[in-house]
């Protein structure tokens, strides 16, 4: 199992949120994925939007890395807090080495 740390945010759009926590699980789609190599490290971008008031509602589109060799499809998004967003987003991941 690989572990990553990262940062997410918006490149362009609207993001007005008071979130205490956001959990996102992704399905990885890649032609040549090699487990154990931390191949998922890098910057991803895509589009998404949603609203939350205690309960999450919204849609996140698949995001791709810069060379388009890996796509991450959100399969579970859960927010706690309140807000609304519609934006072009980014996700930056780096290997979390113990």
Mean pLDDT: 79
Largest sheet: 5 strands, antiparallel
Poorly predicted ranges: none
Termini gap: 12 Å
By secondary-structure content and strand pairing, the structural class works out as mainly beta
Query: What string gives the helices and strands in order?
Result: EEEEE
**Number of separate structural domains:** 1
Q: Report the count of strand segments.
A: 5
Helices, by number, come to 0
- Beta content: over 45%
Structure description:
- This protein has 98 residues and is mainly β.
- The protein has one domain (4-95).
- It is built from no helices and five strands.
- Strands 1, 2, 3, 4 and 5 form a five-stranded antiparallel sheet that branches.
- A hairpin with a 4-residue loop joins strand 4 (63-65) and strand 5 (70-95).
- It is globular, with a radius of gyration of 14 Å.
- The mean pLDDT is 79.
